[in-house]
Fold this sequence. Notes:
Elements: H1 13-34, H2 39-45, H3 50-69
Amino acid sequence: MSTPAPLNRIGSGRHLAGLMSGTVKAAAFWAAVAIPLAYPVLMYAGLDGVNGYLFVSLLFANALALAIGHDYNR
């Protein structure tokens, strides 16, 4: 009878980290592309109260997504 193969199919932890960082960079890149689509809607609704805070939060999220996903697919 043969012995079962080891369950080490993923490889090293570095390979897994590389795959995960690529996924995070891809998600950040596409978030940086999609987030600005909400700006005109918020500006049309007015930037007072909650909409103003949401607009500033989206600007911050967009800057963060740009920083993380800037070298995606290079």
